[in-house]
């Protein structure tokens, strides 16, 4: 076989001879290049060495002076010979500027003229020459010798034959030839192996036989009436016969291009690019149905890729078309199931129905609903409808616009569908007088626009008819038929269920919103201790259980409360209302924050017990609360929290901190005490109370939210509470995922000029002195009109404290929005209002106080009690 390859009669033999010639040429070229390179390197090395020796000798100390001596040869000849032997050059010649030698390796040439070009060196330059001397080819360099003044006083020439610095070529040439011989042997062996493999693949055929075989193969390939494609492993088209070009409509330059770039449909191109096995797969390519078979070419060690055959099966077009239509309708119904009703919004659900139908089923689609349905109520037949959704393939069709109130006439297809509950198909609108009677001018415009056929389907949910869906055709000339009517009814039936669900949710949401708004404070009570602003944002999913309150207390104090009931909907809103009412009732007892939270905790526990028999399971009402009391006289703020985020404090200088209030358990757990924290707040401090919806959601944890709140508060130094609320909420979405309640309260101080207090001895005689002091202070405040009633109130309260209480007894007057009188003692017994009999000598004091004061009451302190009474200022 190798002999046949070497003879050159086959393709393998010709390749073998060609490759051997190429290897020989490469070896010869490498040898010549090596010799030339060595010679060039030798010349360069000789020039560099001669220049270095000449310049070194010319610049050596004493060279210039020796040239001016009476006998330069005697001085320079020994030096030159010593330098020549040390450096390995062939000669070092020192001469004057006329070229007369002073030194030479051969003494008989001293005194003779130097052979070479010295003019550039006399001018101060350097001369490098390649000459053939008596000792062979050499390189000589001539350099000037300059004195200290820079004047050329002589010349130095140094030279060396290239044979002394070369010779490497002679040494390397045998090695090069040996390497070339080895390379030639390896290349010959490799070429022989390649030729042997090529010989096996061509089966020993020569060029002529190969040409004939290819021509025969090409003729057969393009003559068959079946498309043939060969695709490489990289997805590029390697071969396509004429039939494949015709069936697929391939471009003329399709070969060598990727199959995804040939303009084929996605399914066919994907099949060709995948290389997977396919058997009689039917694909609709342009206007032909093609049966495609595909097999990989590397099953038995062949090259990677695939071969594909195509058969025209256009006779199956009608069957395939019907199957495609059926599949499209099934896909549409599937998409209706997952794409209609994605939100619990009636209008959005109607829009989803219209968007799904256009353009796959109709060119235009409209949905008309009763107004009551849009508001969440049950439809009221006989009332007008409103256009809730509209979609089209182009422009604004002359149909009723979105939002238009429509009252259909009795003869219209829509009115018939609403009355009978049955769908109506109008193949040709031009021939439908009942439809045209709705609005002659508008219907003429619709017909002129090109709309020619319509289907009207009532939106039925059980026994309720919510409205009608209308499908219009304009682009496709064929009218709607019975099969399309069935598809429209199926689509509308699925959409009607979603619209009814959205309607029910809208009704429940409206009820919950109404309940929640009725439970939250509509306005803040009047008080003078705090300047307050507040915000409430409902959750995106509906109402929740967040609440807040501002509660005026006795002694000009004010209580702030924020709370959060876990969950959303009616139950959360109702629970919130019960807790808010409980806080109102407990606050009227003037309880400390920790005691009030304890009572709330017991209440939530009872609520859970009440719910358990109803639901049949253990119910835990999750709730948190923060309760704070601010006293404008002492500037003390006492607060406690039950599982609630800590409040923030913005100091007058702009600094922000989160107050260290002990974190009690959430309400309803029971058995654990609550702790209070008491802080003294500077005037004009801003106390920020909020619920967890402000600082926590699914996308961020509470630490990140607290950091964002701190940053927002730092940007509001000196801002009013209203501006602070606006800045804090600007970083939230319009509809957050959880409720947000926010209170910002700026502290005020009731100054010493508006507070008066006295200590009263436990002696009835001291009452008159207190009355006199009070009268003087009221006169100073310009409240002489209240002197008489205030004296009566204080006389009764102080007398009761002296008679029934324990000292020390204190009296305090506060001039705030009202005039507040307070009497304190160390007793914990509380007086009670009662009706005295006509024969009783006492018992009418508190009745008199209740008649004269606007409000009165008792609050307990750690050291006793305080009885107070308020009078309105004139």
UniProtKB/TrEMBL annotation:
GO terms for cellular component: plasma membrane. The keyword Transferase applies. GO terms for molecular function: ATP binding; kinase activity; phosphatase activity. Residues 527-747 form the PPM-type phosphatase domain. SUPFAM superfamilies: ATPase domain of HSP90 chaperone/DNA topoisomerase II/histidine kinase, GAF domain-like, PP2C-like, PYP-like sensor domain (PAS domain), Sensory domain-like. It is found in: Cell membrane. The keyword Glycoprotein does not apply. It comes from the Bacteria. Residues 345-509 form the GAF domain. One of its GO terms (biological process) is phosphorelay signal transduction system. CDD domains: HATPase_RsbW-like. This is Histidine kinase. It comes from Streptomyces corchorusii.
């Amino acid at each position: 076989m190798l002999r046949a390859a070497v003879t050159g009669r086959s393709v393998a033999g010709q390749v073998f001879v060609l490759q051997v010639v190429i290897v020989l040429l490469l070896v010869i070229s490498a040898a010549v290049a090596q010799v030339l390179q060595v010679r060039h390197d030798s010349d360069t090395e000789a020039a560099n060495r001669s220049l270095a020796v000449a310049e070194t000798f010319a610049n050596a100390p004493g060279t210039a002076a020796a040239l001016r001596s009476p006998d330069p040869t005697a001085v320079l000849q020994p030096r030159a010979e010593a330098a020549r032997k040390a450096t390995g050059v062939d000669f070092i010649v020192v001469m004057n500027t006329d070229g007369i030698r002073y030194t030479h390796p051969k003494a008989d040439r001293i005194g003779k003229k130097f052979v070479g070009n010295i003019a550039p060196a006399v001018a101060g330059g350097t001369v490098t020459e390649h000459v053939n001397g008596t000792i062979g080819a050499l390189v000589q360099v001539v350099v000037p010798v300059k004195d200290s003044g820079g004047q050329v006083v002589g010349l130095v020439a140094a030279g060396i034959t290239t044979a002394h610095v070369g010779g490497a070529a002679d040494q390397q040439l045998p090695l090069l030839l040996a390497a070339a011989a080895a390379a030639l042997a390896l290349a010959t062996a490799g070429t022989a192996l390649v030729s042997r493999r090529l010989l096996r693949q061509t089966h020993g055929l020569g060029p002529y036989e190969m040409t004939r075989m290819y021509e025969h193969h090409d003729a057969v390939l393009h003559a068959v009436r079946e498309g043939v494609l060969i695709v490489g492993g990289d997805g590029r088209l390697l071969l396509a016969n004429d039939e494949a070009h015709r069936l697929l409509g391939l471009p003329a330059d399709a070969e060598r291009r990727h199959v995804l770039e040939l303009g084929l449909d996605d399914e066919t191109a994907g099949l060709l690019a995948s290389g997977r096995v396919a058997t009689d797969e039917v694909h609709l390519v342009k206007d032909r149905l093609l049966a495609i078979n595909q097999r990989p070419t590397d099953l038995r060690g062949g090259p990677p890729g695939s071969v594909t055959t195509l058969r025209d099966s256009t006779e199956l077009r009608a069957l395939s078309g019907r199957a495609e239509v059926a599949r499209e309708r099934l896909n549409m119904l599937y998409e209706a199931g997952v794409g209609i009703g994605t939100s619990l919004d009636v209008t959005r659900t109607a829009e989803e129905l219209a968007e799904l139908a256009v353009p796959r089923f109709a060119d235009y689609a409209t949905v008309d609903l009763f107004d009551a349905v849009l508001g969440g109520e049950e439809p009221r037949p006989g009332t007008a409808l409103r256009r809730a959704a509209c979609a089209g393939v182009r422009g604004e069709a002359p149909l009723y616009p979105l939002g238009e109130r429509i009252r259909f006439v009795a003869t219209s297809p829509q009115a018939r569908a609403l009355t009978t509950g049955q769908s109506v198909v109008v193949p040709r609108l031009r021939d439908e007088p009942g439809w045209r009677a709705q609005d002659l001018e508008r219907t003429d415009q619709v017909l002129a626009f090109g709309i020619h056929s319509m289907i009207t389907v009532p939106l039925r949910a059980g026994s309720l008819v919510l409205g009608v869906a209308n499908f219009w055709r304009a682009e496709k000339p064929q009218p709607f038929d019975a099969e399309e009517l069935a598809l429209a009814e199926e689509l509308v039936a699925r959409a009607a269920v979603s619209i009814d669900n959205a309607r029910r949710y809208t009704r429940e949401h409206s009820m919950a919103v109404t309940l929640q708004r009725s439970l939250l404070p509509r306005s803040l009570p009047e008080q003078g201790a705090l300047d307050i602003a507040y915000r409430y944002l409902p959750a995106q999913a509906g109402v929740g259980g967040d609440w807040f309150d501002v509660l005026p207390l006795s002694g000009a104090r004010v209580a702030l409360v924020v709370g959060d009931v876990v969950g959303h909907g009616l139950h959360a809103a109702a629970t919130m209302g019960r807790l808010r009412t409980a806080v109102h009732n407990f606050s009227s007892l003037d309880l400390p924050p920790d005691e009030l939270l304890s009572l709330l905790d017991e209440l939530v526990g009872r609520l859970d017990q009440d719910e358990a028999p109803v639901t049949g399971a253990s119910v835990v009402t999750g709730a948190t609360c923060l309760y704070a009391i601010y006293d404008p006289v002492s500037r003390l703020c006492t607060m406690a929290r039950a599982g609630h985020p800590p409040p923030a404090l913005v100091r007058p200088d702009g600094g922000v901190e989160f107050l260290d209030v002990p974190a009690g358990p959430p309400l309803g757990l029971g058995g654990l005490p609550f702790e209070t924290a008491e802080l003294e707040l500077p005037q004009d401090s801003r106390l920020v109370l909020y619920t967890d919806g402000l600082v926590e959601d699914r996308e961020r944890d509470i630490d990140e939210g607290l950091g964002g709140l701190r940053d927002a508060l730092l940007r509001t130094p000196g801002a009013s509470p209203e501006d602070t609320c606006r800045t804090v909420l600007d970083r939230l979405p319009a509809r957050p995922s959880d409720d947000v309640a926010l209170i910002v309260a700026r502290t005020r101080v009731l100054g010493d000029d508006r507070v008066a207090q006295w200590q009263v001895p436990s002696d009835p005689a001291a009452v008159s002195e207190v009355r006199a002091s009070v009268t003087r202070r009221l006169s100073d405040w310009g409240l002489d009109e209240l002197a008489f009633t205030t004296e009566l109130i204080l006389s009764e309260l102080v007398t009761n404290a002296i008679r029934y209480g324990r000292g020390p007894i204190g009296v305090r007057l506060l001039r705030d929005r009202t005039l507040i009188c307070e009497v304190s003692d160390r007793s914990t017994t509380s007086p009670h209002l009662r009706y005295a009999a006509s024969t009783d000598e006492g018992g009418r004091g508190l009745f008199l106080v209740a008649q004269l004061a606007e409000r009165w009451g008792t609050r307990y302190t750690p050291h006793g009690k305080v009885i107070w009474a308020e009078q309105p200022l004139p």
